[in-house]
């Protein structure tokens, strides 16, 4: 029996990890500026996180949503404290599932079918989420029945014309595109999206799967814009590696019994993981750290004279060299033992370290990039 080979993989087998350090099965050490694809938010094996999950496992690991779970309530309250308006919480297991549920809710609540998404978007691989992803090669015929239009960031005319038909249930947006290569809408265009959604009864979904939980330097990236989402989807950094996803649903959208559901979503271990992440983000001021490190990143790129455009924000940041970066990324890994990320834009190196990364670590990475580029 062999694996169904869908991944391009490095010939590296990891044995352990601590903070930003990864150790492979031969004892070789690597530094993690990729966070297993923006998942590691508070560092690998953070002691507070390990303690919370271990304690919980000794109490009760799983029961279904047929019983009350106070950790879900606590998580909903703690997340609400990060927002200016009231939202309720639905928990699931991954980013795609979070978006799928948000898209489904938008359709339930409006009775409409069409989706407006953006060029360069990635929202996951389930049916509606993948249909709203701007990559036809991963959309199977079975997913292609969804009615989705893609417009570029900044195209006010199409935004206005399409939403004016009042056929769209939702606009789904990553305010920093992850897989797409760190593009962001302008402040003006974001305000226009907000206004057009309100005017036409179209619901707004902020996909915070990658950018949420502090990675952008704000708790949610959409908070850096004038956006009032109806739904906020999240996953990745939320559980620091424990699979958890969720949708925050604006209080004006009332729940209807059975309209959504899940077996595993919101289980005890997942909730304790997310609560431990929130504890560490708050106690160690990691969101402010993400902002400080963005500033440090910018000044180091300048000081070292790296000839590339900086894209993104916080610790969802990267460099666009205007030419392919595959060889650079390979050298960073093989020679310098530094893991960085790629994107669907081959010219971009994506940097997604744990939020407790340090100035020294950013300087080391950029010196190596300068040396090897
Ligand atoms: N949305 C965004 C913005 C993502 O970056 C991703 C994954 O990379 C997803 C959704 C899908 O998340 P998952 O892989 O957990 O299903």
Write the layout of secondary structure elements.
Layout: E1 14-18, E2 21-24, E3 29-32, H1 35-38, H2 47-59, H3 70-80, E4 87-92, H4 95-110, E5 114-118, H5 127-131, E6 148-151, H6 156-163, E7 168-173, H7 187-200, E8 203-207, E9 231-234, E10 245-250, H8 268-283, H9 286-304, E11 309-313, E12 316-320, H10 326-334, E13 338-339, E14 348-351, H11 359-372
Parallel strand pairs: 3-13, 5-6, 5-7, 7-8, 8-9
Antiparallel strand pairs: 1-2, 2-3, 4-10, 9-10, 11-12, 12-14
The chain binds pyridoxal-5'-phosphate.
Class by alpha and beta content: alpha/beta
Can you tell me the CATH superfamily of the largest domain?
A: Type I PLP-dependent aspartate aminotransferase-like (Major domain)
Helix content percent band:
25-40%
CATH topology value of the largest domain: Aspartate Aminotransferase, domain 2
Q: What is the C-alpha radius of gyration, as a whole number of Å?
A: 20 Å
Q: Summarize the biggest pleated sheet.
A: 7 strands, mixed
Hey, roughly how much beta strand do the residues contain? Answer: 15-25%
Instruction: Tell me how many strands there are.
Output: 14
Q: Helix and strand succession?
A: EEEHHHEHEHEHEHEEEHHEEHEEH
Structure, explained:
The protein is α/β, with parallel strands linked by helices. The chain folds into two domains: 14-46 and 285-372, Aspartate Aminotransferase, domain 1 (Alpha-Beta Complex), CATH 3.90.1150.10; 48-283, Aspartate Aminotransferase, domain 2. Helix content is 35%, strand content 17%. It is built from eleven helices and 14 strands. The strands form three sheets. It has a seven-stranded mixed beta sheet, with helices on both faces. β7 (168-173), α7 and β8 (203-207) form a beta-alpha-beta unit. The radius of gyration is 20 Å and the shape is globular. The mean pLDDT is 97. Bound molecules: pyridoxal-5'-phosphate. The site of pyridoxal-5'-phosphate has 14 residues, from α4. Pyridoxal-5'-phosphate (PLP) binds at residues 94-96, 99, 122-124, 174, 178-179, 207, 209-210, 235.
